[in-house]
């Protein structure tokens, strides 16, 4: 997903950009953790995109399996917040990754609408108390 352009941002879009940036940092950290455990993720994969997706998914599944097994033996594991399914259900455009950019290089209407829905969601039911201060919103 892309942030909204910096010019003329309203509070809702500024919050979206902040939350997107924060999510990207978390994903980068998570991928770094996976890459430390699974060497295939440390280098360029010379695979077709569909096969690369399968490899990454397999690494995620194995990582979760190992964490779950370790938590049963006394190690700590993170708990689910329960919000993941709500987000997944609300934003299920079909194959958005494959159709996110039109042949002209511009985002499709569908991806623009998804970004707007996230912006609305982050200022309503998924708003958090600290986001306005961190996103420099009044």
Q: What is the domain tally?
A: 1
Mean pLDDT: 82
- How far the N terminus sits from the C terminus, by CA atoms, comes to 25 Å
Task: Output the structural class.
Answer: mainly alpha
Element-by-element helix/strand order: HHHHH
Low-pLDDT runs of 5+ residues are 93-97
The helicity comes to 55-70%
Q: How many strand units? A: 0
**CA radius of gyration:** 18 Å
User: Strand-residue fraction?
Assistant: under 5%
Globular, elongated, flat, extended or rod-shaped: what is the shape? extended
Report the sheet with the most strands, covering strand number, pairing sense and barrel closure.
none
Counting H and I runs of at least 4 residues, what is the number of helices?
5
Domain DDE Tnp4: 8-64
GO molecular function: metal ion binding
Protein name: DDE Tnp4 domain-containing protein
Region (Disordered): 70-109
Structure characterization notes:
The chain has 138 residues and is mainly alpha-helical. The chain has one domain. Helices cover 56% and strands 0% of the residues. The protein has helices spanning 11-37, 49-72, 83-90, 109-122, 131-134. Helix 1 packs across helix 4.
What is the element layout, followed by pairings?
Layout: H1 11-37, H2 49-72, H3 83-90, H4 109-122, H5 131-134
Protein name: DDE Tnp4 domain-containing protein
Organism: Elysia marginata
Keywords: Metal-binding
């Amino acid at each position: 997903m892309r942030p909204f352009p910096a010019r003329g941002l309203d509070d809702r879009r500024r919050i979206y950009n902040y939350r997107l940036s924060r999510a990207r940092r978390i994903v980068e950290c998570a991928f770094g953790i996976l890459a430390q455990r699974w060497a295939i993720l440390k280098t360029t994969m010379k695979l077709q995109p569909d096969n690369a997706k399968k490899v990454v998914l397999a690494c995620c599944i194995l990582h979760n399996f190992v964490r779950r097994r370790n938590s049963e033996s006394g190690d700590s594991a993170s708990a689910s917040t329960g919000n993941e399914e709500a987000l997944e259900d609300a934003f299920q455009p079909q194959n958005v990754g494959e159709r996110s950019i039109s042949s002209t290089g511009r985002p499709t209407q569908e991806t623009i609408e998804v970004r707007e829905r996230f912006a609305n969601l982050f200022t309503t039911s998924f708003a958090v108390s600290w986001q306005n201060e961190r996103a420099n919103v009044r």
